Amino acid sequence: MTPILFVDRDGTLIEEPADFQIDSYAKLRFVPGVIPAMLRLRDAGYQFVIVSNQDGLGTPAYPQASFDGPHQLMLQVFESQGIVFRDQLIDTSFAEQNLPTRKPGIGLALPYLQDRSIDWARSAMVGDRPTDIAFADNLRIRGFQLKTPQFGGEWDWDGIAHELADAPRRAHVQRDTKETRISVDIDLDRVADPRIATGLPFFDHMLEQIGKHGGFALAIEAQGDLHIDEHHTIEDTGLALGQALREALGDKRGIGRYGFTLPMDETLASAALDFSGRPYLVFEGEFRRERVGDMPTELVPHFFRSLCDASGLNLHLSVRGDNDHHKVEACFKSLARALRQAVRREGNALPSTKGAL
Prior knowledge:
single chain; 357 residues; alpha/beta; 9 helices; 32% helix; 22% strand
């Protein structure tokens, strides 16, 4: 079955001018990121259908010839990059006519509802106005409103392509206790700068290593009883992060499963892990300092144990060296690199002879 991406034209494929009419070549500007995103979607199996309201097209106020030239050039540019539109649904009425063919009405799209080859579960609509989202609602498909100064919205083309083409493995975990409030957001299929705020700057720096070297998007916010000590904040962050990893991985189909030895100056750290569903931690290493920055060194293995317990991770982590700062950081980096290998998708098979992980 084929998913369809219905796309608005003005403000979505090409930028919309102040007078809302692209009636000359000089007004033709493509929306940033649209071509790379649509190529990704094409490669994911999507076909494209333009759905556009063109007020009064064909009247003296908006001659057909003024529309056709820039429109055909737009289509030629897309085609030159490998993007072809299956159909163009263009309504020429005015809003006050309230015709069913004008978005958010779906009159022009009715023939598609009878096409049994369309994958409606994956189909979507992209536009820059609330009427585009209402059109999607009327078709009962997902709608994405591009972020613009005039109409709001929250999406860009790169994000839309990621959402639809990558089928991202993501999770949001909110862990609230009498001692801490922890929020974790993770997207294993998107690279982004980590956003960490726990109230413990050195711990923040260590958690940043997991997102940065793990190669996935990670955001953590923690509010804990630091007036007592650091224990609850570090422990509960490990539990929340582990839960997020478990939820994002889902049934674990296609993952590498196993995963890194990492040198850092005089320090050597090794992380061997398995997303087996059977939590276990073996930690080999000693620290001479009571704390590094604001993080007690006794809580380093405790954090990894909490992470393992909540994620179902079997982790063997060892470290040796002279500088405790390097040793702690190497532990987090080696874990991150091992995670990078283990969560990477390599197909759709379940990497287990048992049939479950």
